[in-house]
Amino acid sequence: MPERSTLLRVEHLRKIYESATGDVEAIGDISFTMNAGELVCVVGPSGCGKTTLLKCLAGLLPPTSGLVEMDGSPVRGPSPAMAVVFQEYGRSLYPWLTVRGNVELPLRHKKLSRAERDTLVTDAIEAVGLPHAARSHPWQLSGGMQQRVAIARAIAYQPEVLIMDEPFAAVDAQTRADLEDLVRELHTTRRISTVFVTHDIDESVYLGERVLVLSNSPTRVQEDLAIDLPPERDQLTTRALRRFTELRTHVYDQIQRAKLGQVAPQSAR
Amino acid sequence: MKKVTALGLVAGVVFALTGCTDSDATPSDQASGELRRVRVAALPITETAALWGGIKAGVFAKHGLRVEVLPAQGGAQAIPALINGDIDFAIGQPFGAFRADLQDLGVVILGNYASSYRDGDDINAVVASAKSGITKPAQLAGRKVAVNSLGAAGDVTIMAAVEKDGGDPSSIKFVEVAFPDVPAQLAAGNIDAAWVPEPFVTQLRSRGDAFVVAPYQAVVPGLATLTVMGATKLKESDPALVKDFSAAMKETLGWAQDPANEVPVRQAIKDNLELPDPVAESVRLPAFGWELDRKSMEALATLAGKYRVLDRQPNFDRLIQQQ
Amino acid sequence: MRVLSARRLRSTRKVLLGVVGLVGFLVVWQLIPTLGLIDPEYLPYVTDVLARLVEEFRDLAFWRRLGLTMTAWAIGLTVATLAAVVLGTIVGLVPLLRRATHTMVEFLRPIPSVALIPLAVLMFGLQMRAALVIIVYASFWQVFVQVIYGVADVDSVARDTARSFGLTLRERLSYLVLPTALPYLLTGLRLAAAVALILAITAEMVIGNPGLGRMIELSRSAGDAVGLYALVVVTGLLGLLVNLVFRFIERRSLSWHQSVRGEEVL
Amino acid sequence: MTPYAGEPVTPYAREVVSGSRFRGAGIRIAAGFLFAFGLPFLALVVWGVWSTRSTNRFFPGPLTIGEAFVDTWVGRAFLDDVLPSLYRLGLGIVASIVVGVAAGTVIGLFRWLRELLEPLLEFFRAIPPPVLIPVAMLLLGITDSMKVVVIVSGAVWPILLNTIEGVRATDSVMTETADSFQITWWERLWFLVLPASSPRIMTGVRQGLSVALILMVISEMFASSSGLGYRIAYFQRNYLIAEMWSGILLLGLVGVLLAVAFGLVERRVLRWYHGMREVTRA
């Protein structure tokens, strides 16, 4: 593997939701770094603040304390260096625009010539395998296809980091496998740095080069695990590898431990 | 929160009830049950003072009638009500009766109510705004002139007055503006001149607008402005009622015309209309009287025919049934 | 607990801001004639208007007029609702009728009810009945259309289920059609109540049958701007009241229903 | 591309044309025609027969009214009375939409503004719009602009309130999407806020249209010397019954045309919305 430079640095990130009567600590203390071109999966028990973390990374939420740094400069709001793919594709795509219009929308304020913009859009739609549906509206497509549109929109934006928030949680298993392969393919061919948030352990191991296991809330990093599977992966052979099973079991253990980590002191009492 | 609202509500009701007034209460409610109930539609204008005053003075009760005055916005509402039998009599401009007669609606004029003056200051006039520079009827040609209702006595007599003065009546641009709105519209320059009754004539002249002509007086002196109407049906089915009412009306109008009774008549204006007192004191009243001047009405209808306001002439033998 | 008090805090803020808005409006109103931007003869001082309002509220004659207006409103609304529910249910249940009446309904519905005022005047002169014609016509369509929507909205599976169990027409109406159509009916009723009030007052203004609308016309023709504005405020308050009451009924009787719950979430 | 877009969502239209496909299109068209025009025709016939027997002079027959319609409205009167009315109506509608959507968007976007104005808006909406005619006459005189103002003062509320509601209810994920892609303010308005609230806005416009038509008529009945409302009132005052009916008929036609025009525009503007609803329902 070639030497990679640090792209994203998170240091002692903490997020507390304030309300009138009490504060809720969603993220306790998270630190990690990510190199350019990496595909990092973030996995954790449900309700552990994955989405909060992701929103902080993307600059959609200001952290209470700590630091998120992109390319050496702190993230203080949504940045053109990041693109987000949301879980709720039905609500994140604009139904009044066509597929093409949706992909094109974020590019409008980038200073690009008409031709450049068209090329980017066409290229992105082809990359996700939807050239035939470019003029359809999102709601005319299946869920999986809609999520492809969301991915196309994100890659056409040419971000340095692609942030995906449980993108495949709402699609059926077969479609999900196809989409996972799409993410792998985009990653290998385009070397887009990706943060992939999921609650699915198999998915995190199958997709990631690294898996970040989060603890229960208030969230910390339970483990930062390198996935030493070969870069060429496919649904059948990769998942059949003994190493895959080992890693999966390991992550599973970690997550169980993460859950117990909170329960243990109570039972000790 | 709810308690506060409820308390507020109770407080409001108590407050409302402790300081109650009732501006409807009329001291002259006839209690006698023997009186026959008659429903009369009348316009809410100063001229109706004769009727209100007559009722209060007990003229109708003397004839065995208890009159209920229903305020009508105009003849258009009163005449259908007359035909349907919802009301027994209506006081309105003769032109409404002309129209009704042309449509064979079965309405007759039973008697006069009020007329304009043959000489002296009349009860209505065309007044022009100072800046329009209009001083005589001929100058109204080509200008914007307001009347309260198009296609009635106002525009017909104005056209005749303009022609008499040597102007072109067909070039006048008539618009409909309700009397109370005239002062503001004249001042704003939306109209050049307007046909208004008292008290507006005095009001406008005193602020510098110019008197142009009193069209009734100039064209048909002594023209009836208001008449008493009834349905043909009622006249046939209940002649006694018509007779009693007519007699009472005649007496009332005579009473109102008597200068000795001016105070109660003006008091009736104050009681029934929301006019400022000085206006009620000074407003010029018409000539009240029961005898119809058929000639003046025929003249009006002829003029209306001439200016294409009416396409036929009403059947006066049928329409006018002086009681 | 936490959520509750947070909500209370928010609603306090809301009430406060609302009061600030209201007071601000009144102050601006008072300032306009004071600064001479508009002649007080045309836009009277708010203090005068409020004083007149208090005076009116203590006058039995005012309440009598208000009663007349509200009587016409209530009768009109009741008649319209009854007619619309009966006809709407029949037409909504029979597809053949629905198709056959479509053109007719689509033509009659957009006729502005006020166009019928002259007709009503000719038919009934200046009685309340003339106003009722217009009130009924206008509010009828609001309910009728909603009832048709509602009756047609009965879930096809539920209908088949009912049929397979051999429910009688009566049972089907009360257990299947009514619950489905109720939210629609109440929406229609709320709209109709507002429309009926508008037309009750309009009719009094144009036709001249006694009531609030006629008082407004009289104030106008007497050049009594203070009274006119006071009455306009009264009609606004009245409309607000009608709106709140019917919205409350809708909420209350449909607390289980999606559309109502959906409104409260956001 | 949008196979469902052509279908309106009224319960009537949802009714699929029954009858077997094999029976041929001819019968189906004939049946459709019969359904569409059968009842109106029948009603006309009954009315015609009834009017020849009835002596009620306030209800002339359809033929008399038809004649009066041609005599009254074809020709000069169309230019003198109908066009000015329609002009004021159009102006009023356009102004209501512009004001309602613009103000509604601003108010919908800012929560504090919404809370500040809510009681006031509720109150103003509740004022029966015809009541404002005397007020408008005081402030503006008897002019065309007064009539337009009256139309706007009534028609703007449903548009305004629905816009506020629509803007307020813009989906949070859609907003976050716009945030994350750093979409500019104008693009956000044009591509997110307005389209997202367009179904509500259109609902408001539909209600606004009928209010506008009513106010056009009433404002002309009060203070006017021309216009459709004035003419109808004039005919009534002069007991020209058939002419009056023809005016009512014309107003009905205007209402229907307005509804049809709105339907066409709505279907175009909300193609995505109706399409989406069809898909979710299926």
Reconstruct the topology from this structure.
The complex is a heterotetramer of chains A (269), B (323), C (266) and D (282).
Chain B: H1 2-18, E1 36-42, H2 49-56, H3 59-62, E2 65-71, H4 75-84, E3 89-92, H5 94-102, E4 107-115, E5 124-128, E6 144-147, H6 153-164, E7 173-176, H7 182-188, E8 193-197, H8 200-206, E9 210-213, H9 215-219, E10 224-231, H10 232-237, H11 239-257, H12 262-272, H13 277-282, E11 287-288, H14 294-306, H15 316-319
Parallel strand pairs in B: 1-2, 1-3, 6-7, 6-8
Antiparallel strand pairs in B: 3-10, 4-10, 4-11, 5-8, 5-9
Helix pairs in contact in B: 2-11, 2-12
Chain C: H1 2-34, H2 46-57, H3 60-93, H4 95-108, H5 117-124, H6 128-152, H7 156-164, H8 169-207, H9 212-221, H10 225-253, H11 258-265
Chain D: H1 11-14, H2 25-53, H3 62-73, H4 76-109, H5 111-126, H6 132-140, H7 144-168, H8 172-180, H9 185-222, H10 228-237, H11 241-269, H12 271-281
Strand content of chain A: 15-25%
Poorly predicted spans of chain C = 258-266
Give the domain tally of chain C. 1
How would a textbook summarize the main sheet of chain A?
A: 10 strands, mixed
CATH superfamily of chain C: MetI-like
Tell the overall outline of chain C. globular
Segments of chain A where pLDDT lies below 50 for 5+ residues?
Answer: 262-269
Structure description:
The complex is a heterotetramer of chains A (269), B (323), C (266) and D (282). In chain A, 39% of the residues lie in helices and 25% in strands. With 269 residues, chain A is an alpha/beta fold. Chain A has a domain at 90-158. In chain A, strand 9 and strand 10 (219-226) form a beta hairpin. The N and C termini of chain A lie far apart (49 Å). In chain A, 44% of the residues are buried. The model of chain A is unreliable at 262-269 (pLDDT under 50). A six-stranded mixed β-sheet of chain B has the order 2-1-3-10-4-11, with helices on both faces. Chain B has a five-stranded mixed β-sheet with strand order 7-6-8-5-9, sandwiched between helices. The relative contact order of chain B is 0.18. Chain C has eleven helices and no strands. The two termini of chain C are 19 Å apart. The relative contact order of chain C is 0.11. Classes of the chains: A alpha/beta (269), B alpha/beta (323), C mainly alpha (266), D mainly alpha (282). Chains in contact: A-C, A-D, B-C, B-D, C-D. At the C-D interface, helix 1, helix 4, helix 5, helix 6 and helix 8 of C face helix 1, helix 2, helix 5, helix 6 and helix 9 of D.
